[in-house]
Amino acid sequence: MLAVLGSVAVHGLPLISFATCSLGLDIEMPEFEFELTEVEFIDPDQELGEGIPEQPEPEPEPQPEVPPPTEENPEEGDSEGPEEEPEPEPPKPKFGDKKSRVDKLGPANSNFFMLLNAKKVAGLAYAESVIEIMAALPDFRFIIDGGGFHPLRDFNYMVIASPDIRDVSQTFLAVEYKLPQSELKDGLDRAAQGRDQTIEWEERSGLLMGNPKPIGDPSKDWDPRWFVFLDDKVAVYVREEFLPSIISGPDEAKGKTSGNFVANLTRMRTFAAREPKAGMQMQMRDIHASLKSARAPFTIPDAFEIMAEAADAPELVVKLEFLGDPDAEKFEGEWKELLPRFIDDKVPILMRGLARGLYEQIEIERADKGVTLRSEFSKTQATLILDQIAAGSSKMLRRTPEEMEQLKQRRRELWDARENGKLTPSAALEKLKTPAPVDPSALPPAAPKGSGSGSPPAEGGTPGAASSGGDAPGGDANTPGGVPGGVPGGVVEGKIEPLPAAPVPPPAP
């Protein structure tokens, strides 16, 4: 018996451990032979002699009566009885199976939401590529570069929401920060000074808040957003019309008000923990309501959701929701039939193999009006994809490669001066004694053609239904000029030139 158990343990345990780890290794185990030894038990009568009187044999214990076998109580070993099959274990949830709830972290009238788990992305191989995707955004230039912050080292989480992503004054920002509140406040003051603005900080109902306004004429404040410190961990940059409900706090009787979503922001990590492996979660909804006309080679969804895993070889999940089942079925056919032909006909031959490889490894699933795309990418593939997205973002916002490289180098120099986080941004900037590059988006962009005056959308209003008032900032990016909106100045021969005197900005909304 010992030999049999020992053999089972030696041969069986390696198989169990490798199966549990799912390594898929085929390891040939050496044969072990156990030598059986006969053992004679000692007879005390023979060892001690015959002087011990014989003991009467104990009476046998009565055996319990075994009831005759019945249909409900079959005999052991009866193969005719029904065998109970073990219940199958429920399948483990896949990454991205749960619906993201990032829309609970932004104003009710928003249709675009993004949550970046900066503390998880910071150590990944493609972290620099993630920064470059955000680096072209005007608010990134204003707050992160202007304040001297590191986007992935000084913050745990970042939230972006907007009812019109093209209008910078409509954008809502929130961060959970690591720095002391005083250091974050000093950085925001530096950012405002870089745009010839100043912040007059005030306290309302225990909340510290301030609105950046032009130094020369505060009445010409074209960006009606306020910085508000909710506590010693969370800060927001929000439009002025949300301040009353933020100050009054959440009220369930009012439904999904700004006060309620701000209360959710203080539990940002709880929303991030809904999918703990995600480094980035993004949603966009009501797409058809935001489109004037649509001509695209593929059927356009009405909403989409993206989750990217925080891993060097990440899994990416894209969930598309269409207006109805026929549209989803049509997209599935386009994906399986039209897209391969598009790759063969339109993609350059040097990149065709790579594009084909990426396409073939993506899994597609359809359920009613929803379509899910899923794939795991290698470290190289993930970096390549994110770099292409970053290049497209820069091109869309009219940032030249030279300008973006200059800002990237500036961030590296500043982080090196901070000795990998040992020094604060203020201390590092004092050591560098070099000014930040000029921000071309410091001036209000020109209004897009055909824009009229209007008031900002009220809570729960139609996304994008109204402009921010007068000549809306962040308008048409295709207008002439070196930067979005036709602002004069920009990049000349790879160097950022100073901007001329500011034109008269639009009246405050």
Task: Provide a compact summary of the structure.
The chain is an alpha+beta fold and 509 residues long. Helices cover 32% and strands 16% of the residues.
List keywords for this structure.
disordered C terminus, alpha+beta, two-stranded antiparallel ribbon, single chain
Would you kindly provide a written description of the structure presented here, covering whatever features stand out?
This protein has helices at residues 2-21, 44-48, 118-121, 127-135, 138-147, 181-194, 243-248, 258-265, 268-272, 287-290, 325-346, 349-360, 379-396, 401-417, 425-432, and strands at residues 112-117, 155-162, 172-177, 197-199, 202-204, 207-210, 212-214, 225-229, 234-239, 278-284, 303-309, 315-321, 363-367, 370-376, 490-492, 495-497. Among the domains are: 2-40, no CATH class; 99-286 and 400-442, no CATH class; 297-378, no CATH class. The protein is built from 15 helices and 16 strands. Helix 4 runs parallel beside helix 13. With 509 residues, it is of the alpha+beta class. A hairpin with a 2-residue loop joins strand 15 and strand 16 (495-497). 32% of the residues lie in helices and 16% in strands.
